[in-house]
Each structure stands twice: as structure tokens, then as C-alpha cells.
Design brief:
Oligomer: single chain
Strand content: 15-25%
Bound molecules: ligand TNX
CATH superfamily of the largest domain: Glycosidases
Strand order of the largest sheet: 11-12-13-14-15-16-17-18
CATH topology of the largest domain: TIM Barrel
CATH architecture of the largest domain: Alpha-Beta Barrel
């Protein structure tokens, strides 16, 4: 496929047309009906087109059919699903159509991927008709903001990248042994006493209620939902540092800024533990509009199974009490009778998946995050300066060439709700570190999650991805020039045809 149509993830249908390209000119106008729900996406579109072309783009909230119009509309004649969309570039106009505003966001970012710099300034898109819908409804990125804090501004860069690749779930790992990152009204001591630092004593931070609302709204406008995680019953040293009542001797534990896992744990026989779970998940439910809360459940290495079961049930009950659904890591698959609709997140490719497969057969929904494929904190190769290695090295092709439906033998394919990449930040201190690990692999995972198997081919993917490297450069993002990519693309200012 030519680099003019470098759309990632690969769309269902892409038909080039012989008409002349669409040029963003001083008369380009975004046109949308004056419906409240359409205003944010129209503003986002005008803003994006303005940035790409270097010219301000106006919005008209009334019918207008003239050359240069980018017309956004809600329609119904599309492939199935709430996120389906259509982009038609031709006759000097662009039509962006979808069933929902989320679909319109997908249409806009697709248009943005079609735009190329124009020789006399501005930008143009080659004529084309795209019709598209995702394979999986859950296309996520899990981000650890506990080991190293990620500021709201940096988070917005990550959310922007997610939207650009049509990822729709930001899973925030907000708490761990090292720190607690979200201020909760019922337990103000959590961030007051346990958020100042990151791993190795690096600077920390936390999200206030206002920060949280900012993150949620910024994500929502880009068709991204936030799934917050409070990790229990392990990974709780920060909570036990803030509140001594969570420890058998009633005394706060020492702050921990190393990178070992599995040593801390809640105690089922302390009544304060259950009050704590009810309070923190209650606060989180109240603060989070989405359907899902993540309770962690991973790597509890110092507890018998019965106690683990009781604590997982207690956390799950605190979530369902507020009408939310539970997400949890793979280990909870060993707990019988999880609440209906629980999403179990597969990650550890080293252990026997039998309990996990059983949970799926018993009705759990499955989120695929295999460490050896989509743990984007794994090093690209042996000498890579950033990242860990426990799941092996993950190069671009590794994160691309796998199928979520068949990776785990025996898993019913219809149980798979989607795919989620994960990036843990033990070794990642800055936004540059983060984007170096995300790019280019995040684009590969996005295509695994979005595009049907029949549309996927690694050589075709790397060809389409080539111009994306130039966009990352233009945005000033650090990224890994993977030797498996084809980054020697022609200069983007060549006119089409
Ligand atoms: C495993 S994945 C963990 C995290 C680490 C990560 C490092 C999971 C549920 N737990 O605690 O940060 O490996 O790759």
C-alpha cells in the first residue's frame, strides 16, 4: 500500500479514488449540526486540522455545502457496532460519518493520518473512501503511574497517542508498594503520606480531584475511557505506610522505593482492612463515570489461598456495591464465583493458563495482555537502555504477530473482550522514556486489537507505519527506530500522485 494511505490500524475497507486531493485552505470549514453532543468533537477536529495545516479552521453549526467543507454527521448506514465510521475524501470535500461521537473521533484521527504537508504550506489528503469498525471493543493501555509518577500534561500526550491509534481504554495503575497517586476523600493520608516519591527516591506526585476530572474529560473528548486500578490485596506497602491500622501491629511500615514485588499484603482478620476496601473503592466509584474498576489481585506471594480469596471477594463486593464491574489480573481466575461480568486480565505467559481458561469457560470475560507480546516495558533487545526483561525482549514484530483469539490454547474466542498493552515504570522516569517504549510498539498493539486478521500483514504494517515516524518527529516525541521498521520513507512534503 502506498504511503499516501498510511492508516494505522488497518481499516476494514479502503478504496482510493482518482479525484484530486482535498486541500486544507483558508476557506476550510468544519460543518456540524448544532447538537450539544457534537460540539466537543467539532472543536477537536477544527483544532487538529488547524494544527496540522498551520491555519485556523472555523466551525459552522449549520448546513453548508461548499468546497472546502469537512462535514461531520451521525448516520446509521455503516458496518455494525458503536465505533464504526466512514471517511470520504473527494469532490473537494471531506465527509466524516459515524453512529456515535466516539466513531466521529476515529474518523477525525483517520483524516489526520491521511494529511500530508502541502508544498505551498497547509496540508492535503488524497481522495479515498474508508469504511471501518473494530474487531475488539476493549483496546487498552495500562499505565503504571505508581512506580514513577506521570504528570497530567504527560498523561495528555499519552492519551493523544492512544486516540491517534484508536485505543479506547486507559487503565491507570494508581497504587503500588512505592506510592499512592489519587487523592481519595475518605483517606486523605494516602496521598499526604505516600505520594511524594517514585522508585529510587525520584520525585513523585499525585492527582487531586481537579486533576482527575481533567484527565477524565480530556480522555472522554478523545473517545478514551479511564479504568482506574487500586491494587489489592498485594502491592499495598504505600497504603500501609500511610495507615498503620492496616498492619497487625498497628504501626505504619517504612516507605519502599525499590522494585521488588510480592512482599506486602492486606490482612483479612483486621476489620480495618474491610472498611478500607469499602471506602477506597466507594470513593473511586463515585469519582469515575465508567463501568469498570480494577482491583489488581496480582502477585500476592505471602498469603494462603483462602485468605486471598476472601480479600479478593471483599474488594470485588466493594466494587459491585456501587454498580460497577470488576476487572482484575489473571491470578483472580483461581477465585470461584467472581461477580458476573468480571473481566480477567491475562498477563503472565510463564505460568499454566489452566485456571484462567476455566474461568473463561465459566463466563469470565478476558482481556489479553500477554507479557511476551504487549508488555511495552520489556526491552526491545538485550542492550536496550530502558526496561525489564522478565517476559523476554519484545521487538516490533513480536508485538504485532500474534492473534488474541488463539494465543492461549483452549480459550473460547468469544470470551475475549479485547487487548491491552501495559507499560510499567520501574525504569521509566520521563516522558521521553515512556514514548520510547510506546513507539512504535503501541501502533502494533493497536492494529492487533482493531484490525481483522485478514487485514493484518507485518510488511504491509511497517510500510504504512513509515510516515508515522515523521509525525512523531514533528511532534517532538522520542521513539525507538526499530530495525524491523522501514523508516526510510520519502519526505512527507512530496505532493500525492
Ligand atoms: C508484573 S503484570 C507486575 C508488575 C510489574 C511488572 C513489570 C502484573 C500484574 N504485575 O507489578 O511492574 O511485572 O513488568
Amino acid at each position: 500500500m502506498s504511503d499516501v494511505f498510511a492508516v494505522v490500524p488497518a481499516p476494514l475497507v479502503l478504496e482510493p479514488s482518482s479525484e484530486p486531493p482535498f486541500v486544507i485552505s483558508p476557506s476550510t470549514v468544519v460543518v456540524v449540526d448544532a447538537a450539544d453532543e457534537l460540539v466537543p468533537v467539532a472543536v477537536l477536529t477544527a483544532d487538529l486540522l488547524g494544527r496540522v495545516s498551520g491555519r485556523p479552521v472555523e466551525i459552522r453549526y449549520a448546513e453548508l455545502d461548499a468546497p472546502g467543507v469537512v462535514r461531520m454527521r451521525l448516520v446509521d448506514d455503516l458496518p455494525p457496532g458503536p465505533e464504526a465510521y466512514r471517511v470520504v475524501v473527494g469532490e473537494g470535500r471531506v465527509a466524516l460519518e459515524a453512529r456515535t461521537t466516539d466513531g466521529l473521533v476515529h474518523a477525525v484521527v483517520t483524516l489526520r493520518q491521511l494529511l500530508r504537508a502541502h508544498p505551498d504550506g497547509g496540508a492535503h489528503a488524497a481522495a479515498v473512501r474508508i469504511e471501518d469498525a473494530p474487531r475488539y471493543a476493549w483496546r487498552g493501555l495500562s499505565l503504571d503511574v505508581a512506580r514513577h509518577f506521570v504528570t497530567v500534561a504527560d498523561l495528555e500526550v499519552v492519551i493523544g497517542l492512544m486516540a491517534h491509534y484508536k485505543l479506547n481504554v486507559l487503565h491507570l495503575h494508581l497504587t503500588d508498594d512505592q506510592a499512592w497517586r489519587l487523592d481519595l476523600p475518605s483517606r486523605p493520608g494516602l496521598v499526604r503520606r505516600a505520594s511524594a516519591h517514585s522508585v529510587d527516591g525520584d520525585p513523585g506526585g499525585h492527582y487531586s480531584r481537579a486533576d482527575w476530572d481533567q484527565i477524565l474529560a480530556f480522555a472522554r473528548a478523545r473517545a478514551v475511557r479511564v479504568v482506574p486500578e487500586i491494587d489489592v490485596p498485594g502491592h499495598v506497602n504505600a497504603a500501609q505506610h500511610a495507615y498503620g491500622e492496616l498492619n497487625p501491629d498497628g504501626e505504619p511500615v517504612e516507605e519502599y522505593l525499590g522494585i521488588e514485588v510480592g512482599f506486602s499484603r492486606l490482612h483479612d482478620d483486621l476489620p480495618e482492612t474491610h472498611a478500607f476496601l469499602a471506602d477506597v473503592f466507594g470513593d473511586l466509584a463515585e469519582m469515575t463515570p465508567g463501568d469498570y474498576l480494577h482491583i489488581g489481585g496480582d502477585e500476592v506471594l505471602t498469603m494462603g489461598h483462602d485468605e486471598y480469596e476472601r480479600l479478593v471477594r471483599s474488594a470485588a463486593a466493594a466494587v459491585t456495591a456501587h454498580g460497577k464491574r470488576v476487572v482484575a489480573w489473571q491470578e483472580v481466575a483461581s477465585v470461584p464465583d467472581l461477580p458476573a461480568g468480571t473481566v480477567v486480565q491475562y498477563w503472565d505467559t510463564r505460568v499454566d493458563p489452566a485456571p484462567f481458561v476455566r474461568a473463561a469457560r465459566a463466563g469470565a470475560r478476558i482481556l489479553m495482555s500477554p507479557g511476551s507480546r504487549v508488555y511495552l516495558d520489556m526491552k526491545y533487545g538485550p542492550d536496550f537502555p530502558l526496561g525489564l526483561e522478565w517476559a523476554g525482549h519484545v521487538e516490533l514484530r513480536d508485538s504485532y504477530e500474534w492473534d488474541p483469539a488463539t494465543l492461549v490454547v483452549g480459550l473460547p474466542p468469544e470470551a475475549v473482550a479485547g487487548v491491552e498493552a501495559a507499560v510499567w515504570t520501574e525504569t521509566l522516569r520521563t516522558l521521553d522514556d515512556l514514548t520510547t517504549m510506546l513507539l512504535p510498539r503501541l501502533a502494533a498493539v493497536a492494529e492487533v486489537a482493531w484490525s481483522d486478521l485478514g487485514r493484518r500483514d507485518f510488511d504491509d504494517f511497517t510500510t504504512r507505519l513509515a510516515p508515522h515516524g515523521e509525525v512523531w518527529d514533528q511532534l517532538g516525541l522520542a521513539w525507538h527506530r526499530s530495525p524491523q521498521g522501514r523508516w526510510s520513507a520519502p519526505v512527507a512534503s512530496e505532493p500525492a500522485g
